[in-house]
Amino acid sequence: MKIIIDTDTTPAAAAVKTLTVDEESAGQRLDNFLLRHLKGVPKTHVYRIIRTGEVRINKGRASADTRVQTGDLVRMPPVRVSTPSPDAPVAPGREFPVLFEDEQMLAIDKPAGVAVHGGSGVSFGVIEQLRQARPGARMLELVHRLDRDTSGVLLVAKKRSALTRLQDQFRDRETGKTYLALVKGQWPTNKKVIDLPLQRYLLPSGVGEGERRVRIAHKDDANAQRAITLVRVARLVGDFSLLEVTIKTGRTHQIRVHLASQGYPIVGDDKYGDFELNKRLAAQGCKRMFLHAWRLQFVHPQLGKPQTLQADLPPELQQFIDHVQPPPTPV
């Protein structure tokens, strides 16, 4: 990446910089391109300088979703980057179970209870720990996200071109994302598609004030986002149903809210679940939400071939299933 100081010598422009887009960054959205180069600058500020036209591509205004191309000149106005506090915790280097790895990308089996990145009260997450564990890596960037309490397949790009191609597949709904979820009761076999719009909101004053939540919205609501979830019963486990849930849209808390809206909240869900049931099941060993990103299907960013990655149920979830419905004793 070349950094060229703008030739404008006025005091106001003294800190203006122009970035030349290299081949690895080609095809990336402008907002993501800037966030990568303006670490420490709040996202709200980055979007403001784009919206007000202070960021220019080849001297012209551009929107946040504009794709930068090799050789583009991106003008960046003076910005104040926050200096990390010397007392701020440093992410410990940590490797995670690897499902697949080549020169383009890395797929890991993310454990539950670990955020994918720092922010919102979390000092660091998977990506910061991976970078610490692999100081020689030229680039490690999240392709997509999983909720903190969800385990399973998580993709990390090792090249900018791979990141762009994979994110395009997620955005254009060309990936296949299937989760395993456990719910109480017998899921109706005729309930295979949930097509209900979702809306994000913040909890009012009181317990959890300001926390993000999601609810079913009216289809005509201006803030509603269409969400489609496909549900298949994998098998019955005692008084529970183990579901294979495939999402056609990637909305926040989509599976959790959709299943709960049908009267079948996910076991262990502390936001949309059956709290009394969760307490009883915690005593039986299920101390986390039973939602696991089981299978991910996509096209390899370099080879162009279909690829399927799968992460088995983690031990704590498999052990709970065996507790509820012990495997048959060998004859």
Provide an overview of this structure:
With 331 residues, this protein is an alpha+beta fold. The protein folds into 3 domains: 2-76, RNA-binding S4 domain (Structural Genomics Hypothetical 15.5 Kd Protein In mrcA-pckA Intergenic Region, Chain A, Roll); 98-170, Pseudouridine synthase (2-Layer Sandwich), CATH 3.30.2350.10; 173-324, Pseudouridine synthase (2-Layer Sandwich). The protein is built from 7 helices and 17 strands. Strands 6, 7, 8, 9, 10, 11, 14, 15, 16 and 17 form a 10-stranded mixed beta sheet that branches. The chain has a 5-stranded antiparallel beta sheet with strand order 1-2-5-3-4, with no helix packed on it. Mean pLDDT is 88; it is low at 1-14.
- Number of helical segments? 7
Proportion of residues in extended strands: 25-35%
Q: What is the name of the CATH architecture of the largest domain?
A: 2-Layer Sandwich
Uncertain stretches of 5 or more adjacent residues: 1-14
In the CATH hierarchy, what is the class of the largest domain?
Answer: Alpha Beta
Order of helices and strands: EEHHEEEEEHEEHEEEEEEHHEEH
Q: How many β strands by DSSP?
A: 17
Radius of gyration: 22 Å
Q: Give the distance, in angstroms, between the N- and C-terminal Cα atoms.
A: 65 Å
Domain count: 3
Largest sheet: 10 strands, mixed
CATH topology of the largest domain: Pseudouridine synthase
Average pLDDT confidence is 88
The shape, in one word, is: globular
Helix content: 10-25%
Q: What would CATH call the homologous superfamily of the largest domain?
A: Pseudouridine synthase
| Structural class estimated from helices and strands | alpha+beta
